Fold:
Amino acid sequence: MDTARRLLKCLEIPHDPKLSFSQQLITNEDLLPVIMEHRTWRGYNYVAFWIADMFNINTWMIVSSMIQLGMSWWQAWICVWLGYGVVTPFLVLNARPGAIFHITFPVVNRTSFGIFGSLWCVFNRGAMACIWYGVQSSIGGTCVLVMLRAIWPSVNDIPNSMPASSGTNTRDFMCFFLFWLVSLPLIWFPVHQIRHFFVVKMIVTPVAATVFLVWCVVKARGIGPIVHQPSSIHGSSLAWAMVVSLMSCISNSATLVTNAPDFASRARTPSAALYPQLFAIPLTCSIVCLMGILVSSSSQVIFGEAIWSPVDLLGSFLDDDPSHATRFGVWFISASFIIAQIGTNISANSVSAGCDLTALFPRFINIRRGGYIAALVGLCMCPWNLLQSSNSFTSYLSAYSVFLSSIAGVMVTEYYVIRKGHYKVADLYATGGGTWYWYTYGVNLRAYAAYISGILINVVGFAGATGRTVPLVATRIYELSFFTGFGVSSVVYYVLSRVFPVIGAADKFEEVDESGYEDKTSAHTTE
Structure:
């Protein structure tokens, strides 16, 4: 028994010995407001962050499904502009509390769902971050394969020693593991320092993507036939195809909307997390998607068919005894895509998982440990099997955006409408009656009623997405799932908060900490 106690003591995160047991369940250094020295993110860091996040293979290929629905390239591109342009204000709105009070998503979520009620939302987001870490690592592994083939063509012929039940082979698993291994050192860096990596990616990845575009256009002697291809659908069919495509862009960003406070908490000033994000997200996504369209259109001339995956296209350049110049070009571009995938995994998954797991087990986990746990889960879950069943995986992701939009609807309404920017930061780390965020034994039942309402309105439509026969109106509601989930949860939460008022509800919008937490902490430090 003593050995077990000593082991647990070794695993504990360093904490203030004066903390009570209940406080140890909700507090550690990474959950407290970010100290002044770590508020290092300027406006250009957020621009670099979004370039780092959006220059990835998923964003590059997102237009392919739209064109396959029958839209022309410019109609698909408009959907990208609209989709990311519409979702960005939601992200900025939800990031605001993090930028003002310098707290991460799990702590911001306590204000609306309660000290303990927030744990379910945090678990949802953390689990998804771990899954996505594995998926993005699997995609990164395909980039490693192409890069190694450019150096040593014989890599493609590595004999397989793995059983068919594994879902992969020796060559592909080796490349996946190499990508996974190379990513680990970057998880070590704290959030306020990892911004330097995003700046590097902001320079390298766009240069490589531009080289790739120019190379393909020159090789095809033009931009190919896709840009001249007219739409094959019209009227209401075109309208709903555009709605579905627009919503796919929004669903692609739903997780980032929810956990926007994670990185906003490191902002040097609140405005640093506002305007740069507002413009950088739609602009970066539209540029990446346009590059994807032009490169794929050129590939149709070069290889006789449109190849939407940049990794597959680079692999095709290595077939049939390529020149040394071609192999170098493929190596440089694929290496840049590896950097892109690592950046995306850090920005969207490892940091988010770290913040969320910290809130679930603050006594034993901090952001760094949480990031490594996400990496371990991503390895053990065999993510290549998820990608093989892409239809069911896509349906799951679409359903998951419903959960996240309902959470975001409650959080935004709580901050801007109910308490109108008024916070009591000290109560975010306190339990017991009389505190603002204790609600009913640590759970805000109003928030959960609103959250469930936002999910229920989309349940029938989700059943239709899995193949069951449902009314057309349910399908249309589900196709607008982000807005219906966000809107319904927001309205229900507002009504319930008016019928059953919460402590601290305000009449005037003013972003202020009623507890003066930072001033007291500064005074205590000075003493």
The chain has a mean pLDDT of 87. DSSP finds 23 helices and two strands in the chain. Strands lie at 422-423, 512-513.
